[in-house]
Amino acid sequence: MALDRLQLTLRHLSSSPNLRSLNSTPAPAEQPARELAYTVFCGASPGNDPVYAEAADQVGRAFARAGVTLVYGGGTAGVMGQVSSRTLHYGGKVHGIIPSAFLAQEAPNRGPCRPNEQETIVQSMRERKKLMADLSEGFIGLPGGYGTLEEVAEMTTWSQIGVHLKPVVLLNVNGFYSSLREFINNAISSGFISESNRGFLVFVDGPSLSHPLPASFDWGEAALEAIRTWKDMGSGGATPYSFEWTKEEKKGKEVL
């Protein structure tokens, strides 16, 4: 009889709301959705044709309209400064990633961060690229020099070898990247890049390289559309190599 009373008491306690609230594990708090961000690689020089600044303006406007955060190299000069300032002008968000070694040269042009502007100071170029890749879902290349070329090539290579799988889009403003496309075509025909991996790097052309672009064409909207198409096609039809990177290697401790 005593055992029956004990079992009845335990059943009563186990059904008690107070006891259930003490024993139950609280549901984990929902993590805020990650904001969509793309990195733009481009020159710290303005180039010698106003079409480069115009294209940067259009990219900044498209980012702001789409609610896409601009991740970029943190500089205030050239095409880089143009794309960041215009993104802010149109109400968008920017996140600059700048090595500490560059700060002294940038000092005359720098002020406090504005609303919607974030800056991260890193200690090396390697750390800069790694953080850009971590923060972004894709990459867009405007015209630039050696640094832009190296950044675009590395992000493309990381997709090919399976470190990440993210689109890289080059805006062929004024035919700037036409010779690079010819290099890739030659590498494919010479057996150094497989035809199936052509899609790791996407080139966006204007309606005509030999005539002024119509007012309706927008480099920023074209870049975002190219990224959407790349994703819809399943990585642009390209297939990464099946290397098995460890989590630590993907974080950049070894391979990056």
UniProtKB/TrEMBL annotation:
GO molecular function list: hydrolase activity, hydrolyzing N-glycosyl compounds
Example GO BP: cytokinin biosynthetic process
PANTHER family: LOG FAMILY PROTEIN YJL055W
Taxonomic placement: Eukaryota, Fungi, Dikarya, Basidiomycota, Pucciniomycotina
Pfam families, alphabetized: Lysine_decarbox (PF03641)
Protein name per the record: Lysine decarboxylase-like protein
GO cellular component terms listed in the entry, alphabetical order: cytosol
Source domain of life: Eukaryota
InterPro entries linked to this entry: LOG, LOG_fam
NCBIfam families for this protein: Rossman fold protein, TIGR00730 family (TIGR00730)
